[in-house]
Amino acid sequence: VGVRVDITGVCGVISDTHLPMHDSRTIVKFAEECKDRNAKVILLNGDILDFYRLSKYPKDARGPLLSEELSKGREFLGWLRDKFPRARIIYNEGNHDFRLRSYLTRNAPDLEEVEDFTLPSLLKFDAFGIEWVQDKRIVFLGKLPVIHGHEYAGGGGVMPARWFYLRTGGSVMGGHFHQSTFYPFRTIKAEEVGCWSTGCACYLSPGYRPLNQWNHGWAMVELRQDGGYFVDNRRLLSDGQLA
User: Fold this and answer.
1) 61 has pLDDT over 90
2) d(CA 2, CA 21)
3) Element (DSSP H or E) covering residue 73
4) Are the C-beta atoms of residues 149 and 96 closer than 8 Å to each other?
């Protein structure tokens, strides 16, 4: 069962901040555009925290502590709520966010379902008025399905937006691959399809993958009363300009 956003107005979508390895400029620019466009909904579309220490992969001893990540996460959500006191804020679980549950499953299964050890509790979702979406459910912005991107196995290929189309067969938006791409398609029934992948808001050259095609970015989705939508897929260039 998915989560629906049925409004007339603007929804800001940002993903892959990977706190505390985030890019502050991207987050601030995103918030500024949401404020300028009077966004009614903010969708945090996965991998908001990195959970570096909980990863099953080899880790650098100099990496951030779990306590630091959680503190940065609460600080970010509090800052966002202060910026948008009336907005609906939705936090969609990504694969990095899922690392918390995965770690508990592997190492302390008895704690997995204890509320104090869940992400909403640790990040104080109730205090900040944050809506939690987990278990790979789809968030529908009007008629546009939005996923984080890890719901399908694979690496995203040359163009993640086309990769999304080949797996879903329809219009969709996702993050996960840290690239701003768009893939349009016209079906044999003359149906117009659009697929989008959004950029990230984290460091672009981490130690585990210093060479890549990542870019900073987010999306603004303008929703109509009938559920139709217009997507403005924003790419933030290295000089601070929007493309």
Assistant:
1) no
2) 29
3) helix 66-83
4) no
